[in-house]
Amino acid sequence: MHSTQHGPKRHTGAKRITLxxxxxxxxxxxxxxxxxxxxxxxxxxxxxxxxLTGEPDVLDPAxxxxxxxxxxxxxIFSKLIDMDATGKFVPDLATKWxxxxxxxxxxxxxxxxxxxxxxxxxxxxxxxxxxxILNPKTAxxxxxxxxxxxxxxxxxxxxxxxxxxxxxxxxxxxxxTNGEIVNxxxxxxxxxxxxxxxxxxxxxxxxxxxDHITLKKNPTYFKAGLPHLDSVTFKFLPVxxxxxxxxxxxxxxxxxxxPLQQVPTLxxxxxxxxxxxxxxxxxxxxxxxxxxxPFDNAKVRQAIxxxxxxxxIRDVAYLGTGELGLEEVPTGSSWYDPSGVFGATPDIAKAKxxxxxxxxxxxxxxxxxxxxxxxxxxxxxxxVRDELKQIGIDMTIKAxxxxxxxxxxxxxxxxxxxxxxxxxxxxxxxxxxxIKSGGPINTTGYSNPxxxxxxxxxxxxxxxxxxxxxxxQIRTTTSSDAPLVFTHYETLNYLMNKNVAGSTITPTLSLxxxxxxxxx
Length: 520
What we know:
By secondary structure, this protein is of the alpha+beta class. The protein has helices at about 10-20, 20-40, 65-75, 125-135, 170-180, 185-190, 240-250, 265, 300-305, 310-315, 350-355, 375-390, 400-410, 430-435, 450-460, 465-480; strands at about 45-50, 80-85, 90, 95-100, 105-110, 150-155, 160-165, 200-210, 210-215, 230-235, 255, 270-290, 325, 365-370, 395-400, 415-420, 485-495, 500, 515-520. Strand 2 and strand 3 form a beta hairpin.
């Protein structure tokens, strides 16, 4: 469901990433320009009340698997490098980074950062962070993003040197997306899941289960003049009319989503500021449990892929917003290539034949696990249910709370459900985590050694053309095997009162709350 990027000139890796993000840069340019004008008017101080679509699972960056967790903890932690709204790699805890050879990266670190427990930030924290992610005992969903790390040299407190097993194309992208730096003392002497400690702009205050999380300004934050706000309270609220009413009444200042049926009117409503991006978003998909009948049969999975109509899903579930979902990246990405994707258009006759060939000539009954708090995903299930009737499949919908859904999803206790993988910029962010055998977010149980080899080869390459061809092969095979079926590419929308400024949508989907503030 979760989870999946900066600076000076580099060797081929930087060139590749720059090309991969060119379209994103284009789509976000206007938002970035507007933000620059707004930032000049931001005043320091104030308490921001923000609405999130759900409650985090945990606030430990290494183990959180829900996007709402990242929305909160990214304000508490810092990364070595980050990505701005134009898709450019920018410094965070690293002042500069250099690729000294194809498998060695050197990061020079800021001298003035400290953790919110008083511990000074050094290269030892960098080493500990990634060794912890890679430690199987941590059970991190992001271990696959860093599996190419051989070792980290932290002999100089102000320099961290990464030694990789092989060239690794997505390395910087991954650091900027999921590379929050933690402190060993804070992790081992406290509760990282419920009491996070980072070097970021805000410090954790409290978590009231089922209601809100509050953060306060970090007075020792290493970036001068930031953050602007004194505090941020994240309230867990459904995406319905109550959000708009709360914004209008001044009970909320900012929201991470609005009811889609209201987007056409709200984006021009003079009471609010509306922010979106056509190319930075989230791929949604149907997950089919390949370890349980009937989806242990590839022909049944293929029948599902051929029976769904993505246009109906976009029009009904997403009210015409976003894009038809065919793969893990949007059409604006240079990685996008729909050629060879199985089931790109519906074919009911072929779907019926596949179902009969699989031993179900009279159809079958399946159960869809639905998410009550995510109306678009639940509505997707309803559209799919109606369309599967055409091929003789009776799909019942069991709607549950997000925590119940998540436990069942990660444990493989489902037949079919809707899910998403946020922060997918480089294709490896998706395939190494969700598709690769034993991947940390491979909840479908899919395993194909040939695909695994292609995923590893693509990650180990720094050549754009070679990687694009490899991902085309991966998509061709996996879309035919159909452990999951992409349904939609979901674009994001933020809504805030007119006196709130500094909010933009970046490729990493970080809220960057250090830049938010009030203009009056």
